[in-house]
Amino acid sequence: MQTELRYWQTEEMSHALDQVGARLRAARHARGWTLEELATPAGVSVSTLSRLESGKRQASLELLLPLTRRLGIRIDDLLPTETRDPRVHRPIERRDGMVIAPLTLEDSPMQALKIVYPPMDAAPAARIHEGYEWLYVLSGRVRLALDGSEHALGAGEAAEFDTRLPHSISATADGPAEVLSIFSASGERFHTRLA
Known about the structure:
The protein is α+β, with helices and mostly antiparallel strands and 195 residues long. The chain folds into two domains: 2-78, Orthogonal Bundle (434 Repressor (Amino-terminal Domain)); 93-193, Sandwich (Jelly Rolls), CATH 2.60.120. Helix content is 34%, strand content 27%. It has helices at residues 2-30, 35-42, 46-54, 61-71, 185-193; strands at residues 93-95, 98-102, 110-117, 132-139, 142-146, 149-153, 158-162, 167-171, 177-184. A six-stranded antiparallel sheet has the order 1-2-3-9-4-7. The chain has a three-stranded antiparallel sheet with strand order 6-5-8, with no helix packed on it. Helix 1 crosses helix 3, helix 2 crosses helix 3 (46-54) and helix 2 (35-42) packs across helix 4 (61-71). The chain is elongated. Residues 1-13 have low confidence and may be disordered.
């Protein structure tokens, strides 16, 4: 097992180093520089840089430091980042008759929720919080109470508003409504954690 793990780590490291040349070339091309325009000021020969970019020369700290300084990047920028699982595995929450399903990762800068609102005869009390919200009605009818006015939205309709205005969202008495909501992380905390 230890031998297999060591072999896997060596293979992973080798694969990461294989990508350094291509990433170095991409950084040079992004600046529109020739091999000479990067190599000469960095104190590296053009042939060495060419071999490094094509993978025919092993990358070393001694070679990479002057090149990355000249490019204005970090050595870490030349290494592949770990690809994480893009699937969202967050629990569905049930509160006050609502079913709240997170659609984004917890650390995403923007948050999206699919919310099923239960039927209600009247709008709940309006609240305010930091952020901005965009919502899209997937099914049913939604009552958006916003800054003292009520707006009715049906399936296929959208709305956006500043959440610092007093607002509430609910389904009408006709039946449940399913809504897709997108907002900042502070808005997500309001929707999922406040009673």
